Amino acid sequence: MRLQLPSRVWLLFILLAAFALRLLRLGVNSLWYDETVSIYLARQDLVSLTRHTAGDIHPPLYYYLLHFWGQLAGWSEFSAAFLSLFFGVVLVALVYRVATPTPTPSPVRRSASANGGEAGVGVLAAFLVAISPFNLWYSQEVRMYTLGAMLGLASVYFFVRMLAGPKSQDASRKSQVAGHRSQVTGSTPSLRFTFHVSRDCLAYIVVTALGLYTLYYFAFLIVFENLVALAWLIRSSRLRITNYELRPWLSSQLAVALLYLPWLPIAFRQATDPPVPPWRTNTPLSDVLLESFSALAMGQSVDWRSPLMWLVLLLVAVLIAFTLFDRTTNKLFNYRAIALLGYTFIPLLLIYILSLWKPLYHVRYIFVYSPAFYILLAQGLTRITTYDPSAAPVEPTALRTRLRITNYELRITQYALLAILVAASALSASNFWFNPRYSDDDLRGAVQRLADAWRPGDAILLDAGYTYTAFDYYYDQPVAWRGRLTEYTPRDARAGAVVLQTGSIGGAANLGWGNPESDFYPTTAEETRAALDRVFAAHPRVWLLRLYDTVVDPDGVIRDYLAQRGRILDDQGFAGESFARVQGYLTPRGVVAELPASATARRVLLGERIALVGFEPETVTVRAGAPLDIDLYWQAEQPTNVDAHLFVGLFASDGKLIASREEILLGNGWGTSRWTPGEFFRAPVRLMIPKDAPAADHVLRASLFNPLTREPLSAAGNAWVAEDGQIGLTRVRVAK
After folding, report:
1. What is the pTM of this model?
2. pLDDT tens, 433-476?
3. Dihedral angle at the C-alpha atoms of 262, 266, 272, 276, nearest 10 degrees?
4. Domains of the chain and CATH, by start
């Protein structure tokens, strides 16, 4: 494309735009499970981090970097994701560097540089990566994918330079001219470089080893590199061991293997004997290709099955196919463009082949191999209008002359196609940021709901190893004990929550490798039911954070037990593709048949249907900034057709409201419309006292109201009922 500004000025604008786009809404949404794992590991000391990672399914480098970054910048969602943003912006700059030919001091190069023509592909490729929804997605995710993609592109870059080796000045000069021509025609930059092989070889060894310590899927990129090297050397008949290209290639692979040797036994065991339950299924090759191609072209936040998106995918496919045919020589194919295509899709094909043995595919992993895709796309756009007649075997304008196509019309076509790509990217990015359909699992909301609903004495169940990291990150209340469900013994849960991690029911015996600290452990249905019996006997209410439970409890053992032995109090779903849920259950221990002797009787009929019959404790002293816990006892007198909401407020002596709370009485699963006349109910209530609450005696009041009209339910007048229908309960002393 014709650029009127120097390429580096364009690059500066593109990098600023890339930074701004990746900064937009960074840290606004909740972290999903994998992201909370990243923070959970990074917050540990390095020894614990390494030991835990050795029992997981990813190598530790990213977690090390996040460990030090978090200590410097903090552990908020914004701070943690900023590390991925940084690598995402660096990736944009690196794509520009790889797609831009090696500088040459020739007058032609200086002339081209003046108008930006020589760097058209590099600038356009950087721009496409900057606006790519696929890149925006992973530049805002607290995971290792932007780091892996950046190291992968650097590895391929230095691998090509190393393999090309040092050449004579004459060969170097020819390669520079070829680089200029390739840019003009939109083909891949020349593979000939003037840097000394030892420097490139060392850089390749370092970044490749770092890539393997970042992501195991990086190994597929190394396989691609070696296939390219073999094809290149065989095609050039250069398989002599004394050849300067063969020696650095073999020695570099040996050096990478030696650097990775300390972690290799761990990686091998994790690959052949994963310590986690299998959760992926085999994906047909057609779906693998379509889903991956759609993600590369438009990101993961559009429905690629819609007709409009199919048109965009077809356009992208045509532009890429346009680069695969060499118009500057008598050869049919542009082998360098085919190599770039292989950069992305050969690793994907290897993943699919191995998935026939053990499912490995997920669309997120293709991101590591994505940079070449945008270089190809930029070349396709550039080739529409650029051409080097001196390199063509036939007159290039003959067809254009017959069709009466002008350069101006081709330029308009080029801009129109680019506008379509920008519009599709904008739609996908908008969905990514604002459409709940594509939002990550709202584990922040789910855990906050748990923290809000928990009351002294309650127990909390976490599904297998899939939710405890989110619980650890977001739960801000005291925890009395946390451990495996099958190891539970009755514990006091008044000062903090008892948190129980369920196991993988029917899981393989080698799950977690028998490590008592493993995230996952195998158990049986009988062991699980026996443990739940102990929990139900000790706690009046049990809360469950459900996520991926069909993976670790495919037969629904826990769900069936809770439904049969408990009575559901509350059930809330949260946004995200995994359908996280928080459910609360009343256990037999929590059932009351009458007002306990320890409670203070205070019978007031509300709305002529529901009676407040008492509360406990009788007197309360609480510190400012601490929670106030009180149990209210209710009895249904008549059926109701609406779930009444409870208001509890703490009032100063002058009537000023100090603190208040509104909630569905008992919960949305057992609201007042489901009460049977004559039943007794215990409703534990927690009120947070502000830190600035004055130290004095205050009055605690309660009332019920209709949530549709906000009108309070009328209360029969007596000494405890105020004019607004609020019932005075007890005096509360707030201390500093």
Report:
1. 0.90
2. 999 999 999 999 999 999 999 999 999 999 888 899 999 999 99
3. -160
4. 7-438 (no CATH), 443-590 (3.40.50), 600-735 (2.60.40.2550)
